[in-house]
Amino acid sequence: MTHTETLRRFNRTYTQRIGVLDESFLGLGMPLREARLVFEVGATGATVRELRDRLGLDSGYLSRLLRALEQRGLVEVRADPDDRRRRMVSLTRRGRSTRQRLEERSESHARAMIEPLTERQRDRLTEALATADLLVRAATVRLHEVGPEHPIAAEAVGLYFAELDRRFPTGFDPGAPDREGTYLVATSDGRPVACGGVLDLDDGVAEIKRMWVHPDWRGAGLGSRLLRDLEQLARRLGHDVVRLDTNGTLTEAIEMYERSGYRRIERYNDNPYAQAWFEKNL
Question: Which whole-number Å values give the CA distances from 183 to 126, 157, 230, 262, in the listed order?
């Protein structure tokens, strides 16, 4: 059985078992698409844009779903008082009750599905599903090409800086914010999970910088994919050579660079945190 055949077979089996085909998902009186939206609005609410980005829905379809939930008395959609251009979605009292029943019935349904399995089989299933979830998410991330001052780039780089501050023995001072370069930011469910930037250094030479993958996403090949995409971006921007630097504590990054064909070179910058420098001909 091929990779795609296996995936398609799993999709058919799983969607049938969890009730995706039912008009009344888990007996709640609504299809899965509406129940999922109630779940995503959550206890604290969300903006329409957040829901659209998180679920990958186009504006028209999401608007129709929200209208259906409004007609059921489950959600309220209103303008944000701080920004009238932004619409906020929150659960009504009935919506909160429905979401609680959704949680309880989903948990009960999941328990019933694994009940016939032995403890060892449950462990195998949990491990397999966790791996499948990570790999499918990694395969379906969205890549955004943005400037360093774009909000999604600023958020990703902020997470990167916070990790460096935790990992470096003396902490990390990012200095002035980036004003130049082009960034690739990978997002899943509307949140950044990886990023990297390309900065022009010299005639035909670019630097790859701020490369980061969220800790929960490591081990799925996202870092190597991002590095290849950054190299392609550098080539598209007219560069023949890319350089990068890293700190000695980031051993996993050094191993990835060496596997990807980078060779060590002498120091080329004044980055006080850099301890290893690399170069690759594109």
Answer: 35, 10, 8, 20
